[in-house]
Amino acid sequence: MKGGTIITKSKRHRFGTLNPKINLKPFRSISSPFIETKRSTAKTSGMEEQKKKYESGDALDYIMNLESVPSKLPQHLELLKTRVLCNNDAPIHTDTIQYSGAYAALGVDNSLRLDNFCENFKVKVNRLTDDTIEFDMIGIDPALANAFRRILIAEVPTMAIERVYIANNTSLIQDEVLAHRLGLIPISADPRLFEYPENAGDEKNEKNTIVFKLHVQCPINKEDKTLKSDELEWLPNGSALPAEDSKAKQNVDSKPKTFTSFSCSQDSLPEFSSNPPRPTYLDIKLARLGAGQEIELEAHAVKGLGKTHAKWSPVATAWYRMLPEVVLLKDVEDKLAEELKNKCPKDVFDIEDIGGGKRKATVKNPRDCTLCRECIRGGKEWEDRISLRRVKDHFIFTIESTGALPPEVLFTEAVKILEDKCERVIAELS
């Protein structure tokens, strides 16, 4: 072919002459099987085992267990992934790396796997009182820790006074101010035993309302009287004040209509027989009455959420902090050790005798570190001696209850609420 690339033995190539002595043999096809004449029994069984793993869906586990696949990151990358480094000016590496292929170039899988989470996640209770719990949450993402905090503040229901019916108030405190103060009193009653008031419409019954009565009068011969929350009296039979619209309609023989319609007394229920509803704290000051002044009212408590109003929030505060980590990069001895110990306001460091008349600084209480960074101030030489860090997946969680529910119950309720949210999302996506 003229000027072409296809030639025969009788034609010349434009770049040279074809050598007829070259014996061109066909190459073996890449797809052709590689045949071994001898194969060991161990290798055969190994391949069969690998085949079974692939067929059973454990291919990922098999790949991750290969010797050529690294299971850990290099030390410097592992430090940046798991720690927040707190320098003198500002913390660095504060973000969490979620992308599964972030370390694919190194052969390390960064994906979140359920079996790894179940193996690494731990909860350790450090302190538990009637109102406070402190525990460590280990192996969890900051987003989940913050989700628990927000649920505790705004989405765990409690009982709080919502409606106040004032029959008489001759004190100096205004009606609306008194009602507001009553609403902020924590009520010791299990909200799980009650329904939300909107579920029953306008009906206020024994399943959604707790009624308290307050009737206090300061004697004329007394200078003044302090009104406290212990004066609130629980009315298990419901409201005793007649409703305004029923005063003109009621007959002489009929029972006046009240603000509630209880079908039974609440003290007949086994849940309230041993633990009646009451204010959690009995010494909260509500008002001061002068001689001859009087307050008479009814306060109705209902079930609600903290995101509607702060009076329904079950916690005084719920907060967390990452576990502090204090590392001495170099030995700090003698006078420098004394200086370091005196620098820290939280007594994190201690000094031990290492013999030979020398003393060395050690880290005694790393959990008490507040990251004030006083220990690394004073020049770059101190930054080279001490490293302040925070562990990204280790949280010290503290819950302070208002008294409506025990703190350990509050956390379990928050877990249930988060679980319900996840189930709703899965149901909507499926």
From TrEMBL:
Keywords: DNA-directed RNA polymerase, Nucleus, Transcription. The keyword Nucleus applies. Pfam families: RNA_pol_A_bac, RNA_pol_L. It is found in: Nucleus. The keyword Nucleus applies. GO terms for molecular function: DNA binding; DNA-directed RNA polymerase activity; protein dimerization activity. GO terms for biological process: DNA-templated transcription. GO terms for cellular component: RNA polymerase I complex; RNA polymerase III complex. Residues 132-428 form the DNA-directed RNA polymerase RpoA/D/Rpb3-type domain. Its main location: nucleus. InterPro entries: DNA-dir_RNA_pol_30-40kDasu_CS, DNA-dir_RNA_pol_insert, DNA-dir_RNA_pol_RpoA/D/Rpb3, RBP11-like, RNAP_Rpo3/Rpb3/RPAC1, RNAPI/III_AC40, RNApol_insert_sf, Rpo3/RPB3_RNA_Pol_subunit. Belongs to the archaeal Rpo3/eukaryotic RPB3 RNA polymerase subunit family. This is DNA-directed RNA polymerases I and III subunit RPAC1. It comes from Crotalaria pallida (Smooth rattlebox).
